[in-house]
Structure formats: structure tokens, C-alpha cells
Amino acid sequence: MTKLGKLTLTAALAAAAATFGLAGPAAAEFPEKPVNYIIPFGAGGESDITARFQEPFFKEKFGQNLVISYKPGGGGAVAWAQLNKMPGDGYTIMGTNLPHIVVQPLQKDVGFTTDDLVNIYIFHYTPDAIVVNEDSQFKTLQDLIDYAKENPGKTTFSGSGKGTANHLAQVRFDDLAGIKTTYVPFKGTGAAATALLGKQVVAEWGYTTVPAKYQGMRLLAVAMEERHPKYPDVPTFKELGFDLVSGAYRGIAVPGSTPEDIRQKLADMIDEINNDQRFIDRMIDGGFAVTNVRYGPDLDAFMEKAKKDFAAAAKAADVIK
Amino acid sequence: MLPGIDFLFTALTPFHIALALGGVIAGTVIGALPGLTATMAIAVLVPLTFYMPPASALILMGAIYTGAIYGGAYAAILLNTPGTPSAIATTFDGFPMAKRGDGDLAVTLACLASVTGGFIGAAFLLGLAPPLARVALAFGPVEYFWLALFGLTLISALSEGSLMKGLIGGCFGLLLACIGVAEVSSDIRFTFGSQTLLGGIEIVSALIGLYCVPVLIDMVATPARHLQVSGESRGFRLNEALRISLKSKLNLIRSSVVGTLVGILPGAGGSIAGLVAYSEARRTSKRRERFGTGEPEGIQATESANNATVGGGFIPTLVLGIPGTPPDAVILGALLVQGVRTGPHLFTAGEGSIVYTFIYGLFLATALMLPTGLLIGRYAYRTIVTVPKALLVPTIAFMTVIGTFAIRNNVSDVAIMIILGVMGWTLNRFGFRPSPIVLGLILSSIAEQGFVQGWTIGAATENLMGMFFGRPIAIAIIAFMLLSLFYPLIARRLRFNREEAGAK
């Protein structure tokens, strides 16, 4: 390359940099250093695992590390209550979970309200599903409904916690199907799945992730709009005539002081990861369902609906007054 | 023929040996510092697994885990502070031994016991993992409930002096555990409107507060040295330790088996393994009345049992995808991200490369723990004994604060730790020991969950009595519990009868 050529190139690069620079001086360089990603639960849970799925893509696409740390306590409430006091420079982001952030503030003063949290993206959900052991007497959802009708209250479901997606789904489904079943709360999805495998209960209100993780289980129906690509043979509740689409949604929030352009930028970044086919494949293989609810009107509408639906379900479940 | 023996050589590459060595050393140091746990260390290292073959990453994580469980013994023996919940029962006899000048011997004994436990746990993992994984499933809510009650009966054994004070302490612990958001019912209890209490009392920070802070206060309040020192250097006292270990080989093996089995139970963990092994060792020992005053068998039982939980915990993790212990949950998550699906198929010849390489790596790490553990242990002992109090106290105090904060990245936990510490010191003046309180704190949620779930299922199926008293494993645990409780009475009765018969 000639000297002139080099100069032109440098000039062109400078011009390009200036153009992009004008578009948004702060956002153009973001991120300049590693981004802290706080998970409000312990290590090894599903919030952690999906964050770990995002981590390598973040590094690959944006050249900075996504540093995952944990701040468990109070079912996530301890971390969410502190989020808005953290620096809003875009280098602190936090995982959020639904229905938790809707139900908890309605139960008691937990130090935050649902509207306090600035979500910038809801990137996936784990759809609710009825899980049984491979050798279970229930071959279809109808088998289970018939059994529950003959034995009111005796059909025991394990599930993760109370006031959770699993619990609310159980209450809603009982109502929709006109049956009465018993919900047994366990500490997390792992313990609920263990109880099912050990035949302590006859079925589990779990998620589509459960059979992807544990051996020897079947799904009877999934609470999704369409069938899950990993389980093409499992019907949705909708197909079977029950209007149930629900699950545990996971998003990312930033401190309230984070400037608008950084919020947009972060939402773009998460969006880019979410649209990477390799990421989608990994998520689907793990039994998750990717959602692309982005910061802006989409997310506002999503949250409004979520607040209404989950609050109503929690009331029906007697979790809130 | 050992299963997957071909992979022994895959495990023994220089790279893996270096990983295992580094992991054990790092783990031992981390475990020794109160508050820093194996779970945390492994979570920090998860990103490394993206750049490493899965088997190598597993070896590193397994080595750190093994080392950290052993490292917990140092703080337990030398500072009366369990570095991890697994080491609670190590303090019972470890600290009294250190007090009378045998800290070096106690550390060496702990090292030998940990290596034995580690080997036995890993051997079960290697040979019997798929069938043993069923144990994890056989344990339902009711069994956990009874197991937790069994653990609580230990209060009677641990109450030096007044049983009543022990029971009061235990109840206090049970109540403390209720603070915060209830695990299964999501009720918010005893927070008095305070958000600081919302997260509840974190167990490790409570351990640090109740055990370590009173030791620190006493170190400041009394002019005497923290630990007795002997005039001359006695080395590792390895021969002496080996002799004691050989004598109580039965205790070591039994405790390791107990540790492996309890490790398989996902809801139990190292703390219960150590306590059950301690209780069994005490019940069967000829020197039972010396337990709690510096009896080597107590240390051996706990330390072999808690290291056996490492191998035991991996059994349900790898076979069922159910993490046996908290560090296992992190390792399982890392495996999932790697795309490794757990299941019995991992133990079949075709797909065994990762698992068998890992298991042999675990053996390797356990073997390396012997020399490194002895060396680090000796160094730790020397440091604690020779460093002047003026330096030792602030250093430890600083570490307890950092460690407590690091558990949940939460300042409230530090405040709670200090308050509990001052409370613990005061209560100690009145004869309330920390162990019953901690026992109540740890076992409370296990007992509560088991009871609520067992009751819900029992009531739904209209079989409450059968639920709680009709299941074989539950009956066995109840029997052991009664035996432990009344053994002293029964033993006295038997002896009395024999003497009676002899007199006639």
C-alpha cells in the first residue's frame, strides 16, 4: 500500500469514527469494560444457566466480559430492592423474573414495586407444563383429568414454591378443567423434579426445561401458544381446549438512573444475542422458549398484561389478598 | 476390573495433574478462610469451562471442591470457626485439641481422614453410581423431616453442662431460621417490616458470627496466648496420626460410608453428613464420654464424612441431573452450558470418556491432597500459633467481614453476623453454646419443608399416619434416633443387668 493509500484509509476511518461518534458519543463506545450481570438467585439455577448461555455470545459480539455474580435472598427481593441504588452507567444489569416481581410487592412491602424496576428486555420464558414419569398411568392430559375427577384432591402435584408460575398455573388449570388437585410446594424446580422421580407425587407442575434436564420423564401438555420445537409430539393446552399460556419469564433490568441511550443500546445488544441462531438452538435444546420483548412500547404492553394476569392468578391462588 | 480404567491415563496427563494440584491448593486455602465457600470458588471459575475441554474443567472444579471441604477443617480446629458448614462437628473436638497444644496433630488427623473419605466417596462414585442414585429418590419429604429431627437429637449430646440450655439454644436456632421469606410457603415471617431481614439469616454468616466473633473477643479480652505452644518443632506428627488412624480404621470407614450416603441426598449436604457421622462415632466409641473434649475420633468421623460427600454428591448429579450439594449445582449448570447431558448413559463405555476421566481426576486430586494438605496445614498451624495476637485478631476480623459479604454480596449479612457474634459471646457467658443454636438454624428449614410437604401429601391421600410412620426408611431413621437418644440409658441398664447376673 502506498503512503497516500494509507493516508486515505486513515482519513476514511477517522471520518467513519466521527460519523458514528455523532450518532451517540457515549453509546458508541459502550461497553468499554466488563458488564456486571447480577443474578438475584444462587448459582446453578435456571436464571444462572440462561445467563451463562448469554455470556459467551456477549463476549464474542461486544468484546467485553459479562461478569455474572449472585445476590440471593428473599426469593430475589433482596437484590431487586437494591437495584435502583446501584450506579446507572450501563455496567450494572440484573436479571428479573416474572411472576416474582409482580407477586412479591403485592404480598408485602419488599422494598420495591413492580413499576420501580426498569426492564430493558424479556429474553425468554420457561413455559409451564405438566410432567409425569415415563411409566406413569397417565398417557394423555385427559387421563389425568379423568383421574382427578374420580379422586378429588388426591392428585398430588409437586412444583417449585408458592405464588410461583407453577403454582399459579395449577390454580388456573384446576379452574379451567373443573378439577380439584393438591399442590405441594418444593424448594426449586430441582427438588420438585426429584419428588416426581421418587414417586412422592403423581405429577409435577414444572416447566418444559424439566425433561430436558432429567431422565425418564414425559410431558402431558405445555402452556405455550404453539408446540415447543424440542417436543413436537406434546400438545399445547390451547389445542386441548384450555386457554393456558404461562410460565416463568426472565428479563434484564437496569438501575433507574441509567440514561435512555444506554438502555436502548443494552436492549439492542441483548436483542442481537437473542437473534443468534446458535443461542436460540442452545436455548431450545435446554427446553427454554426465546421471547423478544424489547424495551419500549412492546415491553410496556407486556408488563401491563403480565401485571394484570399474574395479580389475578395470585389472588385466585390465595397468595395475595 | 475397574470400570473405565482406560480413562485413567486420559486423566493422568501433565495438564490434568497441574490442574488437580492447583485446584486442591486453591480449594484448601479458600475453604480455610471463613465465608469463602467451594460453591463460590467454582462459580467464579465457570467461564473457564468455555475454553477448556469439559473433562479438564470438571477435574479442576472437583479438585477445588475437595480441597475446600478439607480446608474448612483448619479454621474449625485452630479458631473454633467452621470455615464451611461441613466442618461444624470438627470444632467439637478439634478446638479442644488445639487448646491443649495438639493443633498440629489435629490438622494432620483431619488431613488423613479427609483423604480416606475422599477416596471412599470417589470409589462409590466409580463403581456403584447408577444403583446408588436411587437412594436420592427413595428419600421423600417425610424422610428428610425425620433426618432433620435425628440431627436435632444431637443437641442432647452436644450440651455440655445443661441439657435445658442446649434445648433453649436449639429452639432459638429454629426460630432464627424462620426469619425472612419462607422457603416453601413464600410467607414473609419475623421481618418486622425491615428489608434487612427479608433475606433471612444466611447460615454461613451465622456460623462466622456465632463461632468466630466470640473467639476474637476472647482473644482480645484475655492476655494468654491463643493456643498453647510446645517448645520444639514436632513436624507433622505424621507417625502419631497414622497410628491413631489405623486404630480407628473402622470409624473412618463407617464415617466415609455415612458421608457418601448422606451426600447422595440432595436436601442434606455436608453439614448433616458430618453431624450424623459424629453422632454414630460417639455412640459406638468406647471413649464416648471423652467426645467434645478433644477426642481424635470426633475429628476423624467428621472430616472423613464430609470429604466423602464430594464423591457421594456427584452420584445423583451425574446420574439423575439432580445436584447432591450446592457446588454440584454449579458444576451441573456448567455442564449443561457445555451441552453435556447427564444421565446413566454417561456411565456406559461409549460415552464414558468425560465422566471416567473426571472420576479418576477426583482420585488424583484426593491423592494430591495428602502432601499439599499436610504442608498447608502445618503452615496454617504455625501461623496461627506464632503470629502475635495484635496482628492475628484484626486480620481474622477483616476476613470474616469480607467472607460474610462475599456469600451473597450483601452488607446486611455482615451486620447480622456481627450482631449474632456479640449475642453468641454474651450467651456463652451464661452457658449457652453456639452448636445447638447452629444446629437448629440449619435443620429448621429442612424439617419444616419435609413436614409441610409430608403433611400436604398425607392429608391429600388421607394417609397421614402411614405417611409419617409407615415408610420403611422413615421407620429406620426413627429407630436410629431413639437408639441415639436412649443409648446411654440402655447401655447402663445392660451393664447393670450383667453385673447383677455376675453377682448371683
Instruction: Tell me, briefly, the overall form of chain B.
Output: globular
Rounded mean pLDDT of chain B is 88
CATH topology of the largest domain in chain A: D-Maltodextrin-Binding Protein, domain 2
Ends apart, CA distance between termini of chain B? 58 Å
List the secondary-structure elements of chain B in sequence, H or E: HHHHHHHHEEHHHHHHHHHHHH
CATH homologous superfamily heading of the largest domain in chain A: Bordetella uptake gene, domain 1
Taking all residues together, what is the mean pLDDT of chain A? 90
Whole-number radius of gyration of chain A?
Answer: 22 Å
> Which architecture of the largest domain in chain A does the CATH hierarchy give at level 2?
3-Layer(aba) Sandwich
Identify the quaternary structure here.
heterodimer
Treating each run of at least 4 consecutive H or I residues as one helix, how many helices of chain A?
A: 12
Distance between the termini of chain A: 75 Å
CATH class of the largest domain in chain A: Alpha Beta
**Beta-strand residue percentage of chain B:** under 5%
Order of helices and strands of chain A: HHEHEHEHEHEHEHEHEEHHEH
- Characterize the biggest β-sheet of chain B: 2 strands, antiparallel
List key phrases describing it:
heterodimer; A: 321 residues; alpha/beta; D-Maltodextrin-Binding Protein, domain 2; 2 domains; 10-stranded mixed beta sheet; 12 helices; 21% strand; disordered N terminus; B: 504 residues; mainly alpha; two-stranded antiparallel sheet; 20 helices; 75% helix; 1% strand; globular
